[in-house]
Amino acid sequence: AQSVTQLDSHVSVSEGTPVLLRCNYSSSYSPSLFWYVQHPNKGLQLLLKYTSAATLVKGINGFEAEFKKSETSFHLTKPSAHMSDAAEYFCVVILDRESSARQLTFGSGTQLTVLP
Amino acid sequence: NAGVTQTPKFQVLKTGQSMTLQCAQDMNHNSMYWYRQDPGMGLRLIYYSASEGTTDKGEVPNGYNVSRLNKREFSLRLESAAPSQTSVYFCASSFRDRSNQPQHFGDGTRLSIL
C-alpha cells in the first residue's frame, strides 16, 4: 500500500523569502514521486519528478525537491518566492515506477500564498 | 497551442439530469484519464483508457461511464446526476500508461448538481 501526506494545507510566505512545502510518503518499494502545481482555474502542471536517479531534483521555475529515503520525505523548496508562485501544490506518489498511472496517489494539496 | 481541451468549462445540472463531458488531446498520446477534484481530497481517478479501444475503472467509478471515441477523444458521462457529483473534473493524457510518464491536464470542468 502507499500513501502521501502533505503536512501543511496552507503556507504563507513573503515575496523574496524561501518556500518549503512538505511531503511525506509511505511505500514499501522505491517509489516515483512528483510535484504538480495548479494555478487558479487551471489544470495541474508537472513541476518535477523523482524516478531513482539523483536524489536532488530540479524542476521548472526555480523549484527543487530532495528525496530522503531515511525520512520518507520529498519536500519542495525554492530559494526566493515570487508572486506568480501563488498556487496549489500537489505531491504525488506511486510505489512502482513501472506501474500504471491508475495507481498514482495524490496528496490533498498545499495552498501557497505569497505576500507582497 | 497543443494540449488537452475540455468542454464545457462550467455546467449546472438538476438532480437526475444527464450530461457528457468532452475531452480531446492533440499530442498523439495513447493514454487518457478522468479525475475529480474535491476540496481537501486531492485528485481521485474515475476512469482511464490505457490505449485506444480500452477503458478501465479507477478509484471512484460509480455513477459514471466513459467512451474512448478515438485516439484523441475520451468522454465522461453522468447518466443521472446526483449532488454528490458536484466537483471539478479534469481530463489528462500521457504518452504511455506508466507512472513515470508525466500527465498533461486540461483546465477542468466545474460541475454543480442542484
Describe this structure in words.
The complex is a heterodimer of chains A (116) and B (114). With 116 residues, chain A is an all-beta fold. Helices cover 0% and strands 53% of the residues of chain A. In chain A, strand 7 (56-58) and strand 8 (64-68) form a beta hairpin. Chain A starts with a strand and ends with a strand. The mean pLDDT of chain A is 89. Chain B is built from no helices and eleven strands. In chain B, the strands form two sheets. In chain B, strands 2, 4, 5, 6, 9, 10 and 11 form a seven-stranded mixed beta sheet that branches. In chain B, strands 1-3-8-7 form a four-stranded antiparallel beta sheet, with no helix packed on it. The model of chain B has no long low-confidence stretch (mean pLDDT 92). Chain A binds chain B through residues 9, 32, 34, 41-46, 49, 51, 90, 94, 96-104, 106-109, and chain B through 4, 31, 33, 40-45, 48, 50, 56, 58, 90, 92, 94, 97-103, 105-108.
Rg of chain B, nearest Å: 13 Å
Find the structural class of chain A using helix and strand composition.
mainly beta
Pair with the biggest interface: A-B, 26 and 27 residues
Report the strand count of chain B.
11
Could you give the order of the helices and strands of chain B? Answer: EEEEEEEEEEE
* Main sheet summary of chain B: 7 strands, mixed
Low-confidence stretches of chain B: none
Overall 3D shape of chain A? globular
The mean pLDDT of chain A is 89
Write the element-wise H/E pattern of chain A from the N-terminal end onward.
EEEEEEEEEEEE
> The biggest beta sheet of chain A, please?
6 strands, mixed
Structural class of chain B: mainly beta
Helix content of chain B: under 10%
Q: For the CA atoms, what is the radius of gyration of chain A?
A: 14 Å
Q: Bin the strand percentage of chain A.
A: over 45%
The geometry of chain B reads as: globular
Unreliable runs of chain A: none
Number of strands of chain A: 12
